């Protein structure tokens, strides 16, 4: 049974059909990369998957259980964590408190703190545990969001543009940690990104979304070289197309 | 706190003790307000709504049941709490400013309702049975009731501040969407915090009605009470239990002092000015000035 399965998911905003029958599935311990031009519905898909939006039509299943229409906090309890396109950390709290805020691991007992410090260590931020989140860089905020998602003991992590606008060194840390937690803990990742070459390296499978439909999916190298996929990015080679970076 | 309490107990002047009793009443109200308003960042402009409903519950229940008004404190808190649920569940689905407006508008609506209803005796108001104590003993009774209530409320709010529930509220204040994604049932958490303030305000209204033994709609539902609480919280700093204490003492001593020497208009002007200055230049209030240093220490 796949960890996550979408069956004909539609999402309409007013007159605009932003997701137009999206179907795919992904197994435990796999990284699914999602590419697609701006406005193709990638963020909307993540919002549907973690309960921010209810699909207009279609089904979302987590290990065979229908989850569409549930609230984000109840989906977190079922093991769906996420990060945001613009990092949403709690600015006036320390990095440590940002992790301790997570309900599932929030006990202020030693266990919760040790776990949080361990995760900060994992992303190379242990030295900043006491720093206010407002005082770290944008890239470090993305690392905090990633650690915070892991703090929720997830089965599925949805990441929206985790590599956009961050220092190459931080990008490398993030990619390595995603891969490692996937292989070691069997967490499934759905990673949305513009950076196709990174996604090709990171992902087990790649899916291209265009105008709310799945244009192609499968082996990352194959998908990224398909003519329709390249076409969707204004007919230029993916990795070197400046229009893709916005 | 100890200072104010000692002040009230030892000076022995009736006037002073009444001033301190009022200060303590505002400590209780502001502490309870701070859970949703300070931790959670949702401005409740309706404290007097629950205060007034508690006062009227006490007046009606005590006269119908033939019991002493103070014995109805749980009924007053309970009715105010139920009203809190009825208002909170729909209105706390709204974000930010809408909620503040709803609490304000409902205060006016309920006040109007109390004006016209038979059971509340309209604008004429209701009389209660005073406690059978001399004026001195009676003042001491209410002083100690509010002193005890202030201590208990502070301890409860301090406890909430270091609990999961308190953290959930801070997460809501900081970023409600992120809080929801991190597993916080945001509407439920906000509603519980709101109902907590409603229950406390209802109980305070009971003691107030008993102390005054006459209530009528205009003073009992005076919007200035709601406003005083908000100003006290912002001036003192609404992000920990200590701020409401400092803020209630500071703002009440100022406004009561001005009230004695002037007609009261100046009091409101000074409070208004304080509100602007603190909201603009001292976002963490009086307590925030100390808190900033502590954060760095605690975190490591
Ligand atoms: N809450 C919303 N209400 C109305 N339209 C929306 C909403 N969210 C997204 N959209 C629209 O859906 C389309 C896809 O947006 P989005 O999912 O953010 O794309 P992507 O993340 O792929 O760039 C855009 O045209 C956007 O304007
Ligand atoms: Mg997007």
Written overview of the protein:
The complex is a heterodimer of chains A (246) and B (300). Helix content of chain A is 36%, strand content 24%. Chain A is an alpha/beta fold and 246 residues long. Chain A folds into two domains: 4-79 and 155-245, P-loop containing nucleotide triphosphate hydrolases (Rossmann fold); 88-153. In chain A, the strands form two sheets. In chain A, strands 6-7-8-3-9-10 form a six-stranded mixed β-sheet, with helices on both faces. Chain A is globular and about 45 Å long. The model of chain A is unreliable at 240-246 (pLDDT under 50). Chain B is mainly α and 300 residues long. Chain B has one domain. Chain B contains 14 helices and two strands, in the order H-H-H-H-H-E-H-H-H-H-E-H-H-H-H-H. Chain B has helices spanning 2-11, 14-39, 47-65, 73-91, 97-116, 135-161, 164-174, 176-181, 186-212, 217-220, 223-236, 242-261, 265-281, 285-299, and strands at residues 126-127, 214-215. The interface between A and B is medium-sized, with 34 and 22 residues.
């Amino acid at each position: 049974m796949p960890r996550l399965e979408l069956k004909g998911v539609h999402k309409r905003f007013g007159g605009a059909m932003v997701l137009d029958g999206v179907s795919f599935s992904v197994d435990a311990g796999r990284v699914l990369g999602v590419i697609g031009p701006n406005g193709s519905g990638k963020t909307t898909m993540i919002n549907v998957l973690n309960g921010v939006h209810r699909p207009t039509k279609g089904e979302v299943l987590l290990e065979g259980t229908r989850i569409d229409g549930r609230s984000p906090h109840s989906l977190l309890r079922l093991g769906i964590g996420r990060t945001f396109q613009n990092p949403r950390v709690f600015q006036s709290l320390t990095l440590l408190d940002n992790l301790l805020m997570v309900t599932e691991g929030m006990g202020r007992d030693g266990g919760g703190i040790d776990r949080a410090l361990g995760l900060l260590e994992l992303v190379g931020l242990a030295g900043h545990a006491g720093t206010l989140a407002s005082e770290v860089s944008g890239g470090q905020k993305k690392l905090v969001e990633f650690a915070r998602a892991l703090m929720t003991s997830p089965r599925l992590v949805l990441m929206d543009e985790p590599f956009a606008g961050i220092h190459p060194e931080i990008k490398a840390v993030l990619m390595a940690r995603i891969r490692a937690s996937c292989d070691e803990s069997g967490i499934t990742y759905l990673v949305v990104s513009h950076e196709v070459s990174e996604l090709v390296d990171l992902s087990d499978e790649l899916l291209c979304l265009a105008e709310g439909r799945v244009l192609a999916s499968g082996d990352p190298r194959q998908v990224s070289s398909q003519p329709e996929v390249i076409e969707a990015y204004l007919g230029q080679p993916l990795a070197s197309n400046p229009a893709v970076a916005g | 706190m100890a200072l104010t309490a000692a002040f009230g107990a030892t000076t022995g002047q009736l006037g002073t003790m009444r001033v301190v009793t009022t200060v303590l009443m505002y400590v209780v109200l502001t502490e309870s307000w701070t859970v949703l308003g300070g931790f959670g960042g949702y401005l409740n402009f309706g404290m007097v709504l629950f205060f007034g409903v508690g006062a009227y519950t006490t007046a009606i229940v005590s006269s119908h049941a033939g019991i002493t008004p103070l014995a109805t404190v749980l009924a007053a808190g309970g009715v105010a709490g139920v009203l809190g649920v009825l208002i909170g569940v729909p209105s706390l689905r709204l974000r930010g400013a809408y909620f503040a407006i709803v609490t304000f508008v409902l205060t006016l609506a309920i006040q109007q309702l109390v004006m016209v209803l038979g059971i509340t005796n309209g604008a004429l108001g209701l009389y209660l049975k005073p406690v059978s104590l001399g004026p001195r003993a009676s003042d001491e009774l209410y002083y100690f009731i509010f002193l005890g209530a202030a201590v208990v409320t502070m301890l409860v709010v301090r406890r909430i501040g270091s609990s999961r529930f308190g953290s959930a509220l801070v997460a809501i204040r900081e970023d409600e969407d992120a809080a929801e994604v991190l597993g916080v049932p945001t509407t439920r958490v906000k509603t519980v915090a709101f109902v907590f303030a409603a229950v406390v305000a209802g109980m305070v209204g009971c003691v107030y009605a008993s102390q005054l033994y006459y209530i009528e709609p205009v003073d009992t539902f005076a919007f200035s009470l709601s406003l005083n609480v908000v100003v006290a919280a912002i001036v003192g700093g609404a992000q920990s239990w200590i701020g409401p204490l400092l803020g209630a003492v500071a703002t009440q001593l100022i406004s009561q002092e001005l009230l004695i020497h002037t007609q009261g208009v100046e009091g409101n002007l000074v409070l208004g000015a304080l509100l602007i200055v603190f909201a603009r230049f001292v976002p963490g209030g009086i307590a925030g000035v100390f808190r900033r240093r502590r954060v760095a220490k605690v975190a490591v």
